[in-house]
Amino acid sequence: DLGVSYYQTNQPDKALQQFEHSLKVNPKHVKTLLNIGVVRAFAKQDLEGATKAWKQVVELAPGTQEARVAQRALETMSDAHQGLGGSTSSSGPGR
């Protein structure tokens, strides 16, 4: 996959462009959404974007290997956030 190749050669913006193009063809392609989450989380430090992509994978393909991988990624991010003193609630700071 071209998007994965771009990611592996440290070209995350091109990778995301390729993945977005793929989603225009098939908006429910879970492997593409899973890869978007990886690029957003690890290359772009966009945890919100990664979370959105991974949640879509879990919703679109429950019970699949891709959904299990996405769910583990979501849980790992949540655990890391809480370990840093973050909160998973939607309340503001200090609440």
Query: What is the N-to-C order of secondary-structure elements (H for helix, E for strand)?
Result: HHHHH
SS class:
mainly alpha
CATH class bucket: Mainly Alpha
Question: Based on the structure given, which CATH architecture is correct?
Answer: Alpha Horseshoe
Largest sheet: none
SS summary, helix count? 5
CATH names the topology as Serine Threonine Protein Phosphatase 5, Tetratricopeptide repeat
Strand-helix topology:
Layout: H1 2-8, H2 12-25, H3 30-43, H4 47-60, H5 65-83
Helix pairs in contact: 1-2, 2-3, 3-4, 3-5, 4-5
Give an overview of the whole structure.
By secondary structure, the chain is mostly helical. The chain has one domain (2-82): Serine Threonine Protein Phosphatase 5, Tetratricopeptide repeat (Alpha Horseshoe). 72% of the residues lie in helices and 0% in strands. Helix 4 (47-60) runs antiparallel to helix 5.
Provide a concise account of the structure shown.
The chain is built from 5 helices and no strands.
Keywords:
5 helices; disordered C terminus; mainly alpha; Serine Threonine Protein Phosphatase 5, Tetratricopeptide repeat; 95 residues
